[in-house]
Design goal:
29% strand
Length: 94
């Protein structure tokens, strides 16, 4: 059976509202003029919203841990003279 899930890219939230026990979150992308443009609406039963928010919070913690570990690894690998030079980017490695 083919995977028919829709993928939506969003880099922001325009608004959120609750009606009839359902949270409706209007997702947005940044347009060419730098302003938010609606791209989708995420509808979640209010009873499931805490679990969803906790799941995203846990994902963020995992990302932060990986970034910290990678920065520490890079700093340990750099010579002492170069350790004072700040880095502006990081890369995830699998």
């Amino acid at each position: 059976m083919a995977d028919t899930r829709t993928t939506v890219f969003a880099d922001g939230v325009i608004e959120a509202q609750v009606a009839h026990g359902v949270a409706r979150i209007t997702l947005a992308t940044t347009g060419s003029d730098g302003k938010a443009v609606p791209c989708a609406t995420l509808c979640v039963p209010v009873t499931q919203l805490p679990a969803m928010v906790n799941g995203m919070g846990n994902l963020l913690k995992q990302i932060e841990e990986r970034v910290r570990a990678q920065v520490q690894q890079q700093q340990a690998a750099q010579p002492a003279a170069a350790a004072d030079t700040p880095t502006g980017a990081f890369r995830f490695q699998s």
